[in-house]
Amino acid sequence: MTAYLDIILSGIFHAAVLFLIAGGLQLVFGVQKIVNLACGAFYALGAYFGITMVGLAIKYGITQELLIFILLISGIVIGLIGVVIERLLRLVYDREEGFQLLLTFAIMLLLEDVIRMIWGATPKTLGNLSMVYGQITLGSISIPNYKLLVIFASVALALGLGWILQKTKFGKIVRATAENRRMSEALGVNVIWINVVIFTLGSILGTIGGALVVPTSAASLEMISEVVVEAFAVVVIGGLGSMRGALVGALIVGLMRAFAVHVYAELELLLIYLIVIAVLIFKPNGLYGKAAE
Question: Is residue 80 one of the residues assigned to a domain?
């Protein structure tokens, strides 16, 4: 029983981080109709920048108990790079999907080189700093409180984002723009500003995810391609453009990954691919995706 609890917790923790990245993907696609391959680079950028900011905070005597807040703030700050990246994407808004994919892939490679130049190719870690929050012991299993805090933070961000999109005037404008861009422009909506805000918000979700994960794993250049595969698996399973699908897809991928790692590590990616293939065969639009008109 304790082994299963450990698997479930690990899966939910990974799903919480994965949801932030996939949620950013879904948000950008839902409004701007761009499939952002650079999401993995935002994730890695948040991880490396988070390590740097925590190192500086410790150097200047800031208490380690503020670790999670430092990481959240660092994720938000570095995520503002989305404002700059969005300027490049304006070149392909009205072009074919192939141009959009090529540009976002080029941005991913560019950011990867930027990370390599600033932080080098050697993986970076925060050591065992996540244990500063202690742990809960249930029988023979120990649950780090940091993982519970990250899960709570991810749920809070998801609820906050849902409230903004459903209950605020800005959210109504965003949903109207996603539904009919030309009509929104005709009614006086500043669509350019909406694009900037949405893409930046999507990049911030990715960088926050990267920042929050580093106390439990190393930041490396390999994480870029790994998270792109998992994030797109989440999108395929949940349905392109659906935030609810991103949540369900993240839970499925996170739990299956944790189960595979526990049973036989080499099954990790294979199991995810098999789930994606099954969804594409039996429900091509994803669990919550809309059929193309």
Answer: yes
pTM of the model: 0.91
Which residues constitute the domain of residue 161? 2-282
d(CA 206, CA 8): 23
What CATH number did the domain enclosing 129 receive?
Answer: 1.10.3470
E strand or H helix at 256: helix 243-263
How far, in Å, are 144, 222, 249 from residue 160 at the CA level? 25, 31, 19
Residue 69 covered by a domain: yes
Contacts of 9 (CB under 8 A, 6+ apart): 143, 147
Average pLDDT by stretches of 10, the chain with 293 residues: 77 91 89 87 94 90 86 94 91 81 91 93 84 77 84 90 89 88 85 92 94 90 89 88 86 88 76 87 81 47
